[in-house]
Amino acid sequence: MELFKIGFFTVKVIDIIDILLVTYLFYKLYTVMKGTIASQIFIALVLIFGFSFIAQLLNMQALGWLLGSITNIWVIALIVLFQPEIRRLLQLIGKTKVARIFTKVNVDENADEIADSCFELKQRGWGALIVIERSSGLKSVMETGESVQAKINKELLVSIFTPKSPLHDGAVILKNGKIEAARCLLPLSEHERIRNKSLGTRHRAGLGITEVSDAVAIIVSEERRVISVAEDSKLEYYDDKEKLKLRLNKAMGKESVAEKVKDIFEEGEKEIEESEEKKS
């Protein structure tokens, strides 16, 4: 459907949609790279593309050819220069709830053993940090600790986090029904460090691993004797064992695709309602 003409240039509805989509993609790329050195290179690249488009529109053949040659080279340079940023963007896409529907969740349903061990540790006043790997691989994190390769059970988890145990300091990684590694080092949450000064290193580490992957972290606080679950950079606290089991079952993929789709739409409706309330 034709909307209007600018000289020989015809603008259609699909052209407007195309421009809006490209603009949104460039905006998301910039927000991901904002605050890095790559953002300056990104702005320069956008300017080159813009001048190249104007040159072609005005039929400036020499300038259009020069800028076109540069943009062709920048396609390869884009991959080399923006490798960390592109990887980060793909991780963010992979962490979305919609993407998880189509990905295989590599975890076993051991919610009962995990929940029982967490409440046992809470009762004894011992701290713990347990990370459940899902679709994002945590091999690099496991390599920082000690390989265990044992079946998940309450007694073993409790013994690992015994204060006198040489493996108690650090995180335990769970994968496919096994305790893969212990005493692992996790990245700290930089955002939470600034916002919430009351959180300790264990909580910041639990939040940090959920910021760079789709893993779920269970934190047992030895000081406050509180159990919390970190997912998607958010903390939730649990004082009931059955509720924790349900939460872990849901996090580890023990729900149908239909239920996941329903949750996505319900969360979208809540966000719309909250935004309307703020406007009113």
Structure report:
The protein is α+β, with helices and mostly antiparallel strands. It folds into two domains: 2-94, no CATH class; 111-265, DNA integrity scanning protein, DisA, N-terminal domain (YojJ-like (1), CATH 3.40.1700.10. It is 56% helix and 17% strand. It is built from twelve helices and nine strands. It has helices at residues 13-33, 38-57, 61-81, 83-94, 97-101, 111-124, 139-142, 154-160, 190-195, 201-212, 241-251, 257-279; strands at 2-6, 9-12, 128-132, 146-151, 171-175, 178-184, 216-220, 227-231, 234-238. The strands form two sheets. The chain has a seven-stranded mixed sheet with strand order 4-6-5-3-7-8-9, sandwiched between helices. The chain has a two-stranded antiparallel sheet with strand order 1-2. A hairpin with a 6-residue loop joins strand 7 and strand 8 (227-231). Helix 6 (111-124) packs across helix 11. The protein is elongated. The relative contact order is 0.10.
